[in-house]
Design a protein that fits this description.
about 325 residues; 8-stranded mixed sheet; 4-stranded antiparallel sheet; 13 helices; 12 strands; binds adenosine-5'-triphosphate; binds iron/sulfur cluster; binds magnesium ion
Length: about 325
Amino acid sequence: MSAAASILDVADLWVAFPSYREATIYALKGLDLRIAPGEMIGLVGESGSGKTTLARAIMGLVPPPGVIERGQVAFAGLDLRAMDEETRRGLLGRDIAMVIPNPRAELNPVLTVGQQIANIALHHLGVGRKEAMAVALDMLRAVRIPDPERRLHAYPHELSGGMAQRVVIAIALACSPKLVISDDATSGLDVTVQAQVLDLLQSMVRQKGAATLFITRDIAITAHFCSRIGIIYDGQIVEMADTRAFFARPAHPYSIMLLAAFSHNPALRARWTRGDVAIAGQRAGAGCAFAPRCVRRQPRCLAEAPELRTLGFGHQTRCHFPVQAPA
Ligand SMILES: Nc1ncnc2c1ncn2[C@@H]1O[C@H](COP(=O)(O)OP(=O)(O)OP(=O)(O)O)[C@@H](O)[C@H]1O
Ligand code: SF4
Ligand SMILES: [Mg+2]
């Protein structure tokens, strides 16, 4: 994929959280990620791997004391880091939208659902009040809220969790953004509602041709909804592949460990998980960040950090000894 074809181009992104008491924490360590228009990329990694930090860095909202130390974040060819605040704010909410969990906290409790969607349309689309309310009603219909004419006048506390999440999606998509970032957005919902909301998000972004960065800890869910999968570990992409290629032949030992964790086969889980807890949690120093937990670790892994390299057909992995055959 060429840089010109990307809607989002993140290159060599480093985000640091300085600390008085301990060494600076690097939440992102030279992360690279490209998303093409219309693509739905699943970004999967365990807690603390840097997923939310990436989402915030793209939005220019890394919380203090965090800082972007280095790297590039380009949206449709525009350098988001160099952009003045007003231009960047204009893009957020209109061209780049974010959906996060806990929809009730996202919604304003004293405004009706209709007013909240209409406000976005008023602000970003430059339409009049009547037209903005018509956009709100259209969006409630699009996200399949039952009885949308009535729900237009409902307050957030009158909605179920699944319905509130649909409203948040309606707000995010009201201006037909070019990039939607969903950060663990459905994790608080029960499984059936989660599947419905994801189905909806997928069909809406397809209709509107938006690219999506779909952030989750649940690798299984990405198989159904994403066109490409990126695996993040300790602030770096360790594997990136088309969904089909990824699930047919995962190459990085961490990816396989994540997949094995979902398997009903205890032997597979045991095979890909190190038992020697004494070294678990130790940092690998100069070597591979995953080495302390890796079942395939060899002396070279402790001495030399692996680069991201291409195995073929856009399938990339950051490992000296990738798995070449089905696990
Ligand atoms: N506000 C902050 N202050 C200090 N350190 C932070 C802050 N936010 C994140 N970090 C550090 O950055 C690392 C990455 O955090 P991040 O929230 O990006 O992880 P995540 O992958 O989104 O995890 P989760 O799946 O739990 O949401 C954390 O381990 C933490 O050490
Ligand atoms: S480089 Fe070595 S330690 Fe790191 S994931 Fe690959 S095999 Fe494991
Ligand atoms: Mg997070």
